[in-house]
Design goal:
The chain has 21 helices and ten strands. By secondary structure, the chain is of the alpha/beta class.
Length: 488
């Protein structure tokens, strides 16, 4: 049970009932108190309450008036009336207005426990039924979004599930499968629609999400719509915006964002990247030792995609054909795990953005390549990665990134990313971070340097960023860590 409200003008009685509620054995997250009906109405307008205990005789607005106002508001809660007067007329009037229980003062602790236990059982059953109905409704909404629906079906869906939508209007947010937004009032999730997650949100919730969460999320946002009949149009807008943000590496892409057209001349210049011989080369190079050329072919394609020089539908179709041919040509080296990874790669919009997808794709292709390549090439790559690791360990205090290190050892960026993870068991960013944190812990333990000086000595110009990273890795702040180590 989430919330109980006690309405009673006598403070001692009110607090006594609160104590009985908290000791009833029924779990209650919050108990609210007020001294009259007007205050109770204000609370009910702001917060959802499960059960209300109310006195009858109170100043400003008594219990009978209060339950009458609640009835007008069509507010859904369980009401228990409490009175010091054994008057049947009061009981009848209260019950007529929706009160489920009527108890006399002095209130007995056992009576409170019995009432709450009974209501808790009913609420649990009601919530389970509501959840089942909601799940069925979401399945129907998913059907509406992904399948062709007749006018008659749409009208039936609208009649049955219109109440699940928001009278003030809604937006749809489309994200990759890895994004999970916290469920709240005014937010409905429909997961795995064309390998995206969809969130139907009120304008107010969208504003809150943009301020708190979405600034780092690659997603598409529709314009505002109303009613279930417009749901598919809203989804198409959100998915269109999602694609745009996906390729342009833009968070919170809105459908009505203005973008400048790409000159035909630039599109013509990239035409060769979508020709059949280019796709054949990307496929056939997997069976050779030309890693650099293979990666270069893909890099050129993805760069053109990000610049909008390539038609997206044509690219999507060509990628589907590529995976089909890949399975045919290299099926003899593909394991079941490989096929599962390919399934994910075939559904590109499940990934956060095109860079995320490109990295996963190249990691997969180069892993297959390593099985096919001769051992001499693997040995060369291994020597380069060992050199890269030594370089990182010597220069961790400098402004390092993967581009700097891959250039240092003259290795293609994407190939380096794959080979580095194969050798170290982790990605570059995590590896560098862990080295810096170990050195920071050593300096905190063995020296009296200030935290700001240590942060700079391990490669962080921003002290606050260093402290945030340190706490996320070690669980405590640098100062707390030093204090603990000094006391050992």
């Amino acid at each position: 049970m989430k919330r109980v409200l006690i309405v009673e003008d006598e403070k001692m009685i009110r607090q006594g009932i609160k104590t009985m509620v908290l000791r009833s054995g029924v779990p209650v997250e919050e108990v609210l108190e007020c001294s009259n009906g007007l205050m109770a109405l204000d609370i009910l307008k702001e917060q959802q309450v499960d059960v209300m205990f109310t006195d009858i005789r109170m100043p400003k607005m008594d219990g009978i008036q209060l339950v009458g106002e609640i009835k007008k508001l069509k507010y859904n809660l369980e009401i228990v009336a409490i009175s010091g007067y054994d008057d049947f007329n009061y009981a009848v009037e209260m019950l007529r207005n929706g009160v489920r229980e009527y108890i006399l003062k002095p209130v007995e602790r056992q009576k409170i426990a019995e009432i709450l236990s009974k209501i808790e059982t009913e609420l649990s059953a009601k919530n389970a039924k509501s959840l089942t109905e909601r799940q069925i409704g979401l399945a129907q909404i998913k059907h509406l979004l992904t399948d062709s629906v007749t006018v008659e079906e749409l009208e039936l869906l609208a009649e049955k599930y219109e109440s699940m939508f928001f009278p003030e209007g809604y937006h749809i947010i489309a994200t990759g499968k890895g994004v999970k937004l916290n469920m709240s009032q005014g937010l409905m999730a429909v997961t795995d629609v064309k390998h995206c997650n969809l969130y139907v949100v009120t304008p107010q919730v969208l504003k809150e999400l943009e301020e708190e969460m979405l600034s780092d999320v690659y997603c598409g946002i529709s314009n505002m719509f109303t009613g279930i009949r417009q749901l598919k149009a809203a989804y198409e807008e959100a998915f269109d915006a999602r694609k745009r943000g996906y390729y342009q590496m833009k968070t919170c892409a809105r459908f009505d964002d203005r973008i400048s057209p790409v000159p035909d001349k630039l599109i013509e210049q990239e035409k060769d990247k979508m020709e059949l011989n280019a796709w054949s080369a990307r496929l056939n190079l997997v069976g050779t030792d030309s890693n650099e050329k293979l990666v270069s072919f893909w890099n050129g394609l993805f760069q053109a995609l990000k610049l909008r020089h390539i038609d997206i539908p044509s690219y999507e179709e060509s990628m589907a054909d590529y995976f089909d041919e890949f399975k045919k040509q290299y099926g003899n080296v593909l394991t079941q795990v490989d096929l599962e990874r390919m399934y994910l790669l075939e559904n590109m919009y499940a990934y956060a953005n095109v860079d995320d997808y490109q990295n996963s794709l190249m990691e997969f292709i180069l892993e297959i390549q390593s099985r096919i390549n001769d051992t001499s090439q693997d040995s060369k790559n291994l020597q380069k990665i060992k050199k890269a690791v030594a370089y990182i360990e010597e220069n961790y205090d400098k402004d390092l990134n993967m581009a700097v290190v891959s250039n240092e050892i003259s290795m293609n960026y994407s190939l380096f990313s794959f080979a580095f993870k194969q050798y170290t068991g982790t990605n570059f960013v995590t590896y560098l971070r862990d080295i810096r944190m170990e050195k920071a812990k050593q300096l905190l333990t063995e020296t009296d340097f200030k935290v700001i000086d240590i942060s700079q000595q391990v490669g962080y110009d921003n002290e606050k960023h260093f402290m945030k990273v340190f706490k996320s890795v070690c669980g405590v702040s640098p100062t707390e860590y030093r204090k603990v180590r000094k006391n050992i």
